[in-house]
Amino acid sequence: MVCNNTLAIALKGQDASRGVVKVPHSTKFDADKIKQQLGISVRAWDEHMYQMKQLSQRKVTQQEAAAYFDAVFNNTSFSIAEQDERFIQYYRHVANSADTHKTEPNGRAMSKVMTMFNGHGRGAELSSAKDTAYGLLCSITEYSDHERRAMSQDHRLDSTWFGSGAALKQRGLEQALRMIF
């Protein structure tokens, strides 16, 4: 059994109708044969690991982080040149104010992930995550999987694997990869 994220990476680009292998009980389990039948590629995993390594080496500024979170949460164009002074002022206000009422679209969520990115997230102080594009992606993942409001743990898990949480994490990955490629 593997997690849904690992399986999604391994099956990247594969035909959606594939994915079923019948193994009779009288047969000895052969993981390599099953992987071959499923079309799971080690190459896809290696590519994913290469991308994560590149993200961990890409340093980001606070302005880039604000632009990244805006692009992920609000589906805006991610271009540092297009980001105006209001984002900088907004995050300065967040840092200096105890006001929890935000008028910015998705302001509360963006404040939360920015706080996690700036050292309050799980593993945020690790060298691979601190002030890196990988740290941005980790903040989005932690927020989606652990911090985002949900009616129950079952709803949270469903969202994380298949719903809006999965879509948010996918946008986060795509935006992070745009920073390195």
UniProtKB/TrEMBL annotation:
This is DUF932 domain-containing protein. InterPro entries: DUF932, Phg/plasmid-like_prot.
